[in-house]
UniProtKB/TrEMBL annotation:
<protein>
    <recommendedName>
        <fullName>GXWXG protein-domain-containing protein</fullName>
    </recommendedName>
</protein>
<dbReference type="InterPro" id="IPR025568">
    <property type="entry name" value="DUF4334"/>
</dbReference>
<dbReference type="Pfam" id="PF14231">
    <property type="entry name" value="GXWXG"/>
</dbReference>
<dbReference type="InterPro" id="IPR025951">
    <property type="entry name" value="GXWXG_dom"/>
</dbReference>
<dbReference type="Pfam" id="PF14232">
    <property type="entry name" value="DUF4334"/>
</dbReference>
<feature type="domain" description="DUF4334">
    <location>
        <begin position="92"/>
        <end position="150"/>
    </location>
</feature>
<feature type="domain" description="GXWXG">
    <location>
        <begin position="26"/>
        <end position="83"/>
    </location>
</feature>
Length: 156
């Protein structure tokens, strides 16, 4: 049987809807990551569980996240009309902190201006799994699952 890391990678390749419970089960088995692990530039993708976040981020042409330090990051990078990666200023900046989520202490990204916590878990040295916790925005109607892959030109 494949480990949770391999299972998560397979879920990122799914082309149709994936049951949220399937993603949650795999995510909950992944190991934590320290905040410093995330420093750099990351491309973003998601697993379509039918969560409203999938459509919202697709419509805004979400590109990923950039972290200059644990105290300074850009939570929403998007592609502009020319295909350049740019920061969505209206989403503000963010910081990284260790936080307990589902019984595991790992890195959480905290938006400076929005009631959102993105909780990260380790998949590979170049991929992390994310669970967006947004009870004040979307209620308790599920978790938005996404992933980040480290950009090869990751220096900031």
């Amino acid at each position: 049987m494949a480990g949770p890391e391999e299972q998560f990678i397979q879920l990122t390749k799914a082309t149709g809807l994936v049951p949220e419970s399937t993603v949650e089960n795999v995510y909950n088995q992944l190991k934590p990551v320290p905040p410093s692990f995330l420093i750099g530039k990351w491309d973003g993708g998601d697993i379509d569980t039918g969560h409203i976040g999938h459509k919202l981020l697709k419509d805004m042409k979400w590109a990923g996240k950039d972290f200059r330090s644990v105290d300074d990051g850009d939570p929403i990078m998007v592609y502009d009309a020319e295909g350049n990666r740019v920061w969505r200023e209206d989403w503000g900046h963010c910081s990284l902190r260790e936080m307990v989520y589902r019984g595991v202490t790992s890195t959480a990204m905290i938006y400076d201006q929005k009631p959102i916590f993105d909780h990260f878990r380790y998949v590979t040295d170049n991929m992390v799994a994310g669970a967006m916790d947004t009870p004040k925005l979307f209620g308790t109607k599920g978790t938005y699952y996404f992933y980040l892959t480290r950009r090869s030109s990751s220096s900031l």
